[in-house]
Amino acid sequence: MENVHILTQRVTGRGDFLPFSAEPTRLDEPTATHELVTELQTSLIIEDILAMYAKFAKKLLNFSGLQFQSTLGTTQTSDSSTTSTPYFYDLSIGKEHLGQLIYFSQYPLNAVIERKLRALHAALVYPLRNAMMYSRVLKLATKDALTGLNNRSQFNDILLQKLENCRRYQRPFSLMLLDLDNFKQVNDNFGHKIGDDTLIEFSKILCSSIRGTDSVFRFGGDEFAILIEDPEFTTNKVIAERIMRLVRHSSMMLQYKVTTSIGFTLASSKDCENEIFARADKGLYKAKASGRNCAKAY
User: Fold this and answer.
1) Which pLDDT value is given to residue 28?
2) What is the pTM of this model?
3) Which residues form the GGDEF domain (predicted)?
4) How far is CA 63 from CA 14, 127, 292, in A?
């Protein structure tokens, strides 16, 4: 059974050796791999798995950053620095390609290090695939398939959480409901493909109109909601006016004569989810009754 002590690489021009690992370590490979697999199986969150793996891999390689790139996006460890040279490794199970694992290191990777990293990759791929499957299932359960926004189920969960925070920690917030004026005629006259494109365009407008602390949801059809981390009517008016302005300046919305009506209300510590939703809905009804293409508080 092979034991690994400090792994080193000659640095050109200096004539000395620097350790790949920041600390001397002695690894029994089969035992170490078993320990890694056991630890990785404790989570289904990609970020957690990457962090656990990075902590273990640093016993072999003194890298400055670690990333995993896949169809789900890019995940990296919290302390990653990506200024050093990247080293790319494809991660696959059979013919299934999971993505690329990227190490950032100022030292070249020799054959010994690469062999040992690949052994660790074999321990990583199955827990990582499980986490990716979980992430996809979670996304299907909480995201709208067309727009990528949070869906109604996620809205219900987050609304309850915000109401609880409002009651316990005095963190008031606002609820805004929106729908599209004249949207039915777009589907009827131009087809559902154009209708879908219009919904996607409106989703982008909503996302570009809010702050990082706010959340956008699509309930279905042309019905949307925004949870706003601010208890002021002024803030709601600013966001509503920004949305309507961007709708007016959108060539797609202009082409198909689509506008938006908006209703909003402020939460209180005495609210339940039905009460705050009913008030925002009444605000939306007021906007429709006032000729549409406007925002009304309730």
Assistant:
1) 56
2) 0.64
3) 171-298
4) 20, 22, 58
